[in-house]
Amino acid sequence: MSSTARLDRPVPVVPAPRKRKAAPARGLGDRTAGYVFLLPWFAGLAVFTVGPLLYSLYLSFTDYDLLDAPKWTGLANYRQMFTSDPRFFHAVRVTLEYVVVVTPVKLGLGLAVALLLNRRRRGIGVYRSLFYLPSLLGTSVAVALVWRSMFAQGGAVSDGLASVGLPKTDFINDPTWSLPAIILLSCWQFGAPMVIFLAGLKQIPAELYDAADVDGAGTWQRFWHVTVPLLSPVIFFNLLLETINAFQAFTPAFIVSGGTGGPADSTLFYTLYLYQTGFNDFRFGYASAMAWVLLAAVAVVTAAMFRLSRVWVFYGDGGAR
Amino acid sequence: MSDQALLAGRTPPAAAPAPRRPRPYRPLVWYVLVTALAVVVVYPVIWMLGTSFKPATEIVTSNRPWPLHWTGHNFPDGWHANPGVTFGRFFANSLVISGFAVVGTLVSCSLAAYAFSRLEFRGRSVMFAGMVVTILLPYHVLIVPQYAIFKRFGWINTDLPLIAPKFLATEAFFIFLMVQFMRGIPREIDEAARLDGCGPYRTYLWVVLPLTRPALITSAIFSFIWTWNDFFTQLVYLNDTSKFTVPIGLSLFVDQTGMTSYGPMMAMSVLALAPVFLFFLAFQRLLVDGATSSGLKG
User: Segment Disordered: which positions (chain B) (predicted)?
Assistant: First the structure.
């Protein structure tokens, strides 16, 4: 599996000495030991991952309310989803809008601030930690509540904007502004990609910049012709992680909308609609079908990103394309 | 390339191209810029702290982040905001779940990581690839069938669905983190242990595990914070108010509309994030490095 083998490559900090060949055969105990150590993981994989995965595939072809036995309905769930469920399409649109805006903005901010911090100055460590802090707090209910309060009618943001002459907006209860408020909450957590970018920047040899200087390259050229190519594995790694994470956002939408996805379904994230279908309406068959559509979407996006990465990601070790 | 160009390349830095010439005001501009950014980033946290100490009237009338008149009332008010159960119960529940999650994750993931990083066996690379794929698997795909399974076990509305999976290394991300670290430990140490008569089990317990301590600490903190902040799973599995955790307790404030509840709500939010803050202050270097070495979810 080339796709997964590469995932651990751009990880910059811990070098992995893998040169060593297979160790000489040891006793029988040694050869089985690997499986023994993996036993808990095997069990977890079977009971909590692969088992449920297959079970939900089955459920997706049924009607199931958790009380009576699942009733086989064939493709009915999928057919309904794609032909007669406007909320499904709405949820897809909200989620895609979110993913398409959050991922590049968050990565762009992360990279910009990483470039800003990538120099020798006193106090760098403090700034780095401060910028990383939101990534530790950001997914919590507490921060979602802070956001809800700050952006609501009479909240700090609304009043702040009013004080500079902009119209008073109730971001949380205005369908045009509720999603942007949640997007902003996610972009606030740019620290996670930032620290990874920083580590990647530190790996770029200074000689290359010196060489670029000698060739008369300006700041912009240095960025595009040295920094970007050499950082591309790290950019790819961040892009992959942030995209997949963005598809799964749940807590902010749930808290900001009070669990409804409102106002006017403007924050009805895919995961939130899935939750409502399963755990409010007890339509577990339909929710399973939705889950599989999400899985397929994430798989297709991931595969496409790996395929595209061959074009633009540069692995300096010669193992590039 | 002409000789002149070559020579130009060898000239000392004094004649380097203009953009690199040191300019005295640059550090100042940089500090102003970075500090301004830091203020914007930290502002929501300051606002949360300030609001938690504001009297209700001031929350409505003033938008300064810091209170004019400090009050501690919001804390007891928030603590007792729900009839019949205090936030103390929620904190105890969260602590139990997070504590077990940390122990389970450390034990099961370090076992798997040891196998992946230091033992030879058939199918290892395929299994490792499979493990990495499970990191990327959206959790929402699993929640419905897991719920059905746990319901059959009779585990709904107990802590077990939140704890048991952690003992079976379902947080594969931590396996990955520990594998990365264990690969950096020299193999000669294992060899030496083997010559001294240690089998793989004792080598794991007495040689590799102690050397993995930094990765274990990082994993423990992240595992704690993620479980502590987790909302989705707890929302799905816990129904009784007496079983509620801190995130669910906080979410109850959403139903109480109106700005008068902001004070108690923010007071409880501050308490909810306090452990995360403390870990951050105590271990910031480890946390940031841990996030760096493995590219955590946000």
Answer: 1-20
**Secondary structure (3-state) at B186:** coil
CB spacing of A146 vs B266 below 8 angstroms: yes
> Which residues are registered as beta bridge partners of A62?
A72
- Structural domains of chain B in order of their starting residue, each with its CATH number: 86-294 (1.10.3720.10)
Whether A140 maps to a domain, the answer reads: yes
Residue pair B117/B204 in contact by the 8 Å Cβ criterion: no
Residues of B in Cβ contact (< 8 Å) with A44: 108, 165, 167-170
Dihedrals phi, psi of A62, to nearest 5 degrees: -130, 170
Note whether A280 contacts B: Cβ–Cβ < 8 A.
no
Put simply, the answer to whether B170 touches A135 (Cβ < 8 Å) is no
B63 by DSSP, 3-state: which? coil
| ∠ Cα B14 B19 B25 (to 5°) | 95
Q: Domain count of chain A?
A: 1
Give domain status of residue A32, yes or no: no
Task: Give the pLDDT of residue B12.
Answer: 42
Domain coverage including residue A200? 89-312
Q: How confident is the model at residue B284 (pLDDT cuts 50, 70, 90)?
A: confident
Q: What is the pLDDT of residue A39?
A: 95
- Average pLDDT over chain A reads 86
Closest to A32 (Cα-Cα) out of B200, B190, B30: B200
3-state secondary structure string, A196-262? HHHHHHHCCCHHHHHHHHHCCCCHHHHHHHHHHHHHHHHHHHHHHHHHHHHHCCCHHHHHHCCCCCC
Say yes or no to pLDDT of A31 above 50. Answer: yes
Q: Which of B17, B129, B141 sits opposite A291 (nearest CB)?
A: B141
Q: What is the ipTM of this complex?
A: 0.86
Q: What is the pLDDT of residues B26-60, one digit of tens each?
A: 888 999 999 999 999 999 999 999 999 999 888 87
3-state secondary structure of A118: coil
Give the minimum alpha-carbon distance from A318 to chain B in angstroms, rounded to a whole number: 22
Q: Which residues contact B23 (CB under 8 A, 6 or more apart)?
A: none
At A267, list the tokens.
Answer: 């924050």
User: In the prediction, which pLDDT does B257 show?
Assistant: 61
The answer to whether the beta carbons of residues A242 and A305 sit under 8 Å apart is no
What residues of chain B, 80 to 139, have a C-beta less than 8 Å from chain A?
A: 107-108, 111-112, 114-116, 119-121, 124-127, 129-134, 136-139
The whole-number pLDDT of residue B74 equals 92
Say if A281 is an interface residue toward chain B (CB within 8 Å).
no
Query: Is the predicted pLDDT of residue B3 greater than 50, yes or no?
Result: no
Residue A54 maps to a domain: no
Residue A178 belongs to domain with CATH number: 1.10.3720.10
* Residue B168 CB partners (closer than 8 Å, separation 6+): A40, A41, A43, A44, A47, A48, B104, B108
pLDDT, tens digit, for every residue of B189-220? Answer: 888 998 988 888 999 999 999 999 999 999 99
pLDDT above 50 (res B241):
yes
In a domain, A105, yes or no: yes
